[in-house]
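User: Predict CobQ/CobB/MinD/ParA nucleotide binding domain-containing protein's structure from this.
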Amino acid sequence: MLSLHRLPGVPTAKQPLFPSTSTFTHPPRRPTCLFPQSKTLPKPPKFHKSPTALLQWNRKPQLSGETPRVVVVTSGKGGVGKTTTTANIGLSLARLDFSVVAIDADVGLRNLDLLLGLENRVNYTALEVLNGDCRLDQALVRDKRWSNFELLCISKPRSKLPLGFGGKALIWLVDALKSRTEGCPDFILIDCPAGIDAGFITAITPANEAILITTPDITALRDADRVTGLLECDGIRDIKMIVNRVRTDMIKGEDMMSVLDVQEMLGLPLLGAIPEDSEVIRSTNRGYPLVLNKPPTLAGLAFEQAAWRLVEQDTMQAVMVEEEPKRGFFSFFGWSIANLLSCVGGSGRGARRKLCTVQFWGTKAEARD
Ligand SMILES: Nc1ncnc2c1ncn2[C@@H]1O[C@H](COP(=O)(O)OP(=O)(O)OP(=O)(O)O)[C@@H](O)[C@H]1O
Ligand SMILES: [Mg+2]
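Assistant:
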């Protein structure tokens, strides 16, 4: 049995790990638009009531707030997953049929283009737009897979933050994006550089909300706390938190802070908890964002859920799925279900992976695996 907990502490809903009918089907995928004219999708088969009620994934999320929502993805500490989050949340939003522009504001050390596999398509940057060397639409790189996702890089790799380029220039770019003939995007995501110097100040200037990424360790938390103060000073009061690289095995062994501990320390609303997942590194190296992976991965599902919550401004509860202690026939023989799968269902690794997909922080895992 799996138990689903909302975060934080609300009653537990239970569901079978392997439902008796073959229900792991999901609505047909459409190439460019997940929810075309109608806002309802064919309902997923009901094999469990509580998770469906919790996740509500059979409908398009309702965009709350004014468009465009200008969201800066920041952290303070470097290497905690800002760029990974920008790429995956951005593409999740595009798959939900929202138009998204992702701005890589990490001047000199840009790598969002690499994560998206778009590095060869960047011919012009925002600096060239500002210098009058090209038009804005020439600097916007359309994603290969989702045409409603576009990337704008501020500068060429390894260049320095040019003198005179600051918050005002970024505000000008955001205003130019708003007044495009194609229409104003629903989301503008800004991938912020690490640290709290000029690059950070520039990146947060046009934003009206922020996603703060932290890992559950004390150094990242300290920097995240400092950045929260700076964001609030800058007038950004809508700050949501993503806890990245969570390891439940370490939390259970009391070697890592739990998500609730992190939430208590920072006092910010939780947008998502992303597990440590080797698939993240694999997808980074392939230039193929995780949320596009089939079958879905643990971290990919968690990013999708975070994107959904971003759209609806937290109306959907974060959900944690855990495996309950095993009882019954197989435990009597000392077998875990994973062992059973590894015996009957091909390679042990694949089988274990499948089990993991359902047992972690997933939300849509039960329906889409
Ligand atoms: N949930 C995760 N599980 C495993 N690896 C992860 C996870 N999230 C991020 N990583 C890895 O951590 C590394 C840093 O991620 P990323 O580049 O997104 O961080 P960043 O905050 O943007 O870094 P920087 O401050 O340098 O811009 C990458 O190699 C990425 O693959
Ligand atoms: Mg980065």
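The pocket of magnesium ion (ligand 2) is lined by residues 82-83, 106, 111, 191 (CB under 6 Å).
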